[in-house]
Design brief:
By secondary structure, this protein is mostly beta strands. Helix content is 0%, strand content 42%. It has a 5-stranded antiparallel β-sheet, with no helix packed on it.
């Protein structure tokens, strides 16, 4: 993840642009997650209460921002097939659905409510997952979100819980699955979630260093063979190529749909890489720390082939 040069290998070789985002003068963007819409506009979800959602074109030119005062702790962003913007606020324990212009359409979860999982209710540390003694209902520091083609919503409720929750398109709870642990169907910090073309639910089981695959009713299908060092949020493109930042290792991995690694780049000093998105040109946008532990930002990796 150097400031210039190339990373990756073979057909997954990229030119690096660490200064991609061109912010207005005096602004900061401590990024948590990144995603894009159908026009390749890039939405950066940030831990800045004044500018939590910043929107750029693919060249990094600033377009607009919205959401001031709405977000407590930005964690994940997802845009569905209709370009609705879904935001996961970890510390409010809520999920929000917005238009691309920032109009609130739906809220799931009660602000400040934490389900009983054995974690102290005043504990908001990043290691709360290790204190989970049993699973609870929605929510306790949720982490990731995905929406299927029918509009059903899947939430990885991970930092202080060990569950995936499924909701109707109108936000009504359908079911949940998962318990703390390392066996099949168990989680130690379910962090990212994705619905693939086959309709399977892929879950980044971050502190177990693995991806687990389920039916949409929570039946365990398989666990990927490749170990990933703290997989965070994920993205799968239309060719079933999977892109995952390895939060605890400082790496980014590109894998096929069977979980076999095709390319990898990064190093340990970039530990805490978090969010990822891929545009229609197959260029990759990654939320990653600055050199030697400086705050996170969005780095663009442009495909060379």
């Amino acid at each position: 993840m150097a400031a210039t040069g190339t990373v990756g290998s073979g057909k997954y070789t990229y030119e690096v642009d660490e200064d991609w985002a061109k912010l207005p003068e005096g602004w900061e963007m401590p990024a948590a997650a990144v995603y894009g819409d159908s026009k390749d506009r890039v939405y950066c979800f940030n831990r800045d209460p004044e500018h939590p959602v910043c929107i750029f074109d693919k060249d990094g030119n600033f377009i607009s921002s919205w959401g001031a005062g709405l977000i407590s702790f930005a964690h994940a962003i997802y845009l569905d097939q209709d370009d609705n913007v879904w935001l996961v606020d970890r510390n409010k324990h809520q999920i929000f659905k917005f238009t691309t212009e920032g109009k609130l359409l739906m809220t799931i979860g009660e602000e400040g409510f934490r389900s009983d999982t054995g974690v102290a209710f005043d504990d908001y540390s990043s290691t709360t997952w290790s204190s989970v003694t049993h699973s609870g209902g929605p929510f306790n520091m949720p982490a990731g979100i995905a929406v299927n083609n029918d509009g059903e919503i899947f939430i990885a409720d991970g930092y202080a819980n060990a569950r995936v929750h499924k909701f109707t398109s109108s936000g009504e709870h359908i079911m949940s699955w998962g318990d703390p642990g390392s066996d099949d169907g168990q989680f130690n910090l379910p962090h990212g979630v994705w619905i693939d073309k086959q309709g399977h639910v892929l879950v980044s089981d971050r502190e177990n260093d693995r991806i687990q695959v389920f039916t949409q009713d929570g039946e365990h299908i398989k666990t990927w063979p490749t170990k990933l060092i703290g997989p965070a949020l994920m993205y799968i493109d239309e060719d079933d190529i999977v892109y995952i930042p390895e939060h605890n290792g400082g790496m980014v991995s590109v894998l096929n749909h069977d979980g076999e690694r095709l390319a990898q780049w990064g190093e340990e000093r970039y530990r805490s890489c978090h969010g990822i998105w891929v545009d229609s040109h197959k260029d990759v946008y990654v939320v990653t720390p600055g050199d030697w532990g400086k705050g996170r930002r969005v780095v663009k990796y442009s495909l060379t082939s």
